[in-house]
């Protein structure tokens, strides 16, 4: 089976895809990853672009795994350039089903508000995001999907007089409470290369913005190293107009 | 457990100021001493419209959100609570999130100077004026 990017385990892709890699073995495995992204956005309040760099660290053993990642950004919004960290993401997951063809499990992501909410770099609140994921493999195809729930650890009543600034934060918008989903498929094309597509998004519970993202991905992997290039477009909810992501991971 | 402790530690280090309603009240009856012509327009011109001006396109706004334009009374009265929460002062909060540290010398220009800061009294007057103005009759 083609190894999938370990960066996925550590959620280096900053788009709230709760899918997980099934690249588990009996022994402990540590991976380091780096994700580079660039995007342009235009919503009701802001026009601009951002570039991000996200190192990731992940650990796996048997059915269990954990990871951490944080992005640093250069954000340009309405002519103002800002540099800063985004929200850090911690994750843990457990594989509940593991057969030759099917893998599935549950995960818990916790997003820590290290990014500035006022600058558009962070949610401003700790987010907790439990999810379930599954992956089905029938060579040369791999199909994956996930579903989750995201919730800010604050009162959702909203401040008196608060008004809508559009999707926030600018670098990776989420709703204070939402259902998340993703679905995708990859095709082995030989020599360790995969071509695939996926879609993902979030549906607010209460006020917010429904977002839908679509993307195509080219990935290359070996048991030790994997690298992917993904081009995404915002289909609904103005998360961005277009975004490119390059990620690579090295496993030990 | 280590991740949880790390998360709590980081969360505890991110206590940035947050926009807070000042809960300023307009005296009853409204004395009519703080008005757009006598106070609000000059306050906005002195501290806000170098970026928050309807004549500035997105690239000239130095980060100011679109449609947050304070060059007219109508623009201010679209979002009085927002202005109160970022720049006003009152019984419940003293908000100094705006103006920011750097401002343009000319509207839409580069951030080439320190922003002029309203006095505490001006911030208090801002919140009281907004509280009064929202109850006054307008033709827009």
How would you characterize this protein structure?
- The complex is a heterodimer of chains A (252) and B (140).
- Chain A has 252 residues and is mostly beta strands.
- Chain A is 0% helix and 60% strand.
- Chain A has strands at residues 29-42, 47-61, 64-69, 72-77, 80-85, 88-98, 102-112, 127-138, 141-152, 177-190, 193-204, 211-221, 225-236, 242-251.
- Chain A has a twelve-stranded antiparallel beta barrel with strand order 1-2-3-6-7-8-9-10-11-12-13-14.
- Chain A starts with 28 loop residues before the first strand and ends with a strand.
- With 140 residues, chain B is mostly helical.
- Chain B has five helices and two strands.
- Chain B has helices spanning 2-12, 36-47, 73-78, 80-87, 120-133, and strands spanning 102-103, 113-114.
- A two-stranded antiparallel ribbon of chain B has the order 1-2.
- The longest helix of chain B has 14 residues, at 120-133.
- The radius of gyration of chain B is 17 Å and the shape is globular.
- Chain B starts with a helix and ends in a 7-residue tail after the last helix.
- The relative contact order of chain B is 0.22.
- Classes of the chains: A mainly beta (252), B mainly alpha (140).
- The A-B interface holds A 44-48, 66, 68, 77-80, 82, 88, 90, 92, 110, 112-114, 116-118, 122, 124, 126, 159-163, 165 and B 3-4, 6-7, 10-11, 14, 16, 18-21, 58-68, 79-82, 84-85, 97, 111.
